[in-house]
Amino acid sequence: MCTPYLKGDFGMRKILLTILVALPTYAGVCSNTSVGNGWTCVQSTNCGPTTGLSLTCQFPSNSTANSLFIVAVRQSIAAAPTLACSDDHNTGYANFTASTEMDPANSEATGACWVLNTSSGVKPTVTANLGVSGSIRMAIFEFTGNATSSIFDVGNEGSADTNAPDSGALAMSATNELIFAANGNSTGGATPSAGTNFILLEAMNTSKLITEAQGVATKQTIHGTFSLGASDNGSTVGGAFHSPAAGGVVRHRGWVIQ
Question: Which residues touch 75 (CB under 8 Å, ≥6 apart)?
Answer without folding.
Answer: 81, 100, 108, 109, 130, 134, 135, 136, 137, 184
